[in-house]
Automatic annotation (TrEMBL):
Keyword Chloroplast included in the entry's annotation: no
Binding residues annotated for [4Fe-4S] cluster 1, in chain numbering: 41, 77, 111
Species: Lacibacter sediminis
Domain TRAM: from-to ranges: 409-474
UniProt enzyme class: transferase
Family annotation (NCBIfam families): miaB-methiolase, MiaB/RimO family radical SAM methylthiotransferase
Binding locations of [4Fe-4S] cluster 2: 186, 190, 193
PANTHER family linked to this entry: CDK5 REGULATORY SUBUNIT-ASSOCIATED PROTEIN 1 (PTHR43020), MITOCHONDRIAL TRNA METHYLTHIOTRANSFERASE CDK5RAP1 (PTHR43020:SF2)
Name this protein carries in UniProt: tRNA-2-methylthio-N(6)-dimethylallyladenosine synthase
Amino acid sequence: MMDLMTDTKVHDENRQGEAYAPFANDPNHYKKKFYIESYGCAMNFSDSEIVASILNGAGYGATRDTEEADLVLLNTCSIREKAEQTIRKRLTEFRKAKMRKPGLLVGVLGCMAERLKSNLLEEEKLVDMVVGPDAYRTLPGLIEEAEGGQKAVNVLLSRDETYADISPVRLESNGVSAFISIMRGCNNMCSFCVVPFTRGRERSRDAKSIVAEAQDLFDRGFREVTLLGQNVDSYYFVDEKSNETVSFAMLMERVALVSPLLRVRFSTSHPKDITDEVLHTIAKYENLCNYIHLPVQSGNTRILQLMNRTYTREWYMKKVDRIREIIPDCGLSSDIITGFCSETEEEHQDTLSIMEYSQYDYGYMYFYSERPGTLAAKRYKDDIPEDVKRRRLQEIVDKQYFLSLDSNKRDVGQTYKVLIEGNSKKDESSWMGRSSQNKVIVFPKENYDLKKGDYVMVKVHDCTKGTLLGTISNQ
């Protein structure tokens, strides 16, 4: 599958294949070393932090050097064909490494594990271990099995595993922003998506453990958390001890109350689950960011029905209206798939027009690529020629280019509260941060006594398609 996106990405291309970083100057001595690469969405990177915690508890230390690793793990994604091809190539490279170091164990974690377990283990003999996203607690035992020469497999999906009691060992980050996984799995059977089959049904994590993790991150200097799930808005936790139910809006409020200095974001949303309660909660708290990722996928009702998205074009447009009404300055982004089975030119035009209507700040844009095991693969023929898909995708990308540029132009002259994330990539004499609307703002440091994690008011004086350019405001 080819994808073209703008700005921040659902699958951050800069992080694909990123190796988990060990502690700086770690004083501990470990019996063995593990190396882990992560692919796919933010959920996978968050899962790698859980895996690191479990392995640390079993006496394994992290390394970024594959040559000194006793255990190599690839945390995988099944959403995109490109990711699978990359992972297969990496596994082939590690098979050669096993010849040089016979004791080396290689394992596959995550979504590919469930879908391709027999291929990877038996047919291609690329790995020693296959571990699904709900089975990470069993890793120490599976490692022992693999060390004994057994092929170790656990891809069982759980009805209740949320890893709520495991404190993640944070991936090397900017030290300002962190992810908190609040739920696992998905109940939305979108016909193009493999997630319900690889990650199982929805289950929500204990609200108290989420708030405690947010508090711990804040105490350690983090100033922004993103509440993470396949469909965060359907979060619903029932505390059987107190007979209390916690909705997503209630959870957001509790995390916001950790501190007014802790910004809160969330991802990803299904339009059907963004309630007025959620929108009013965002509007109520200044540190709940005015930004919503609202995937539309298609602007045509017939195609939306084929995708099993459970809403119509008109319903989605009314949801956009409601967001603008309750949170007037809300940033909005979307996911879009073009060239879905049987899509006509007129239906493609409907997608372009709903983009115009919604005025997305940026978007994640793909052409449809059939994924084995999905409902679409079983029900529909992938009948749009690739050259047509590519042409339609380019039209969508071009449309979003102008929408993103127009959105940024409207910000020129405005002043925004910016959370400093670090130095600008292009110029160390400038800071880079984000507004509440999730827009990147770059501005000169000047002589102000500021540091990473500080908030500062910045007035925008210029822009590109992807970045706002400003100066610190004294107002």
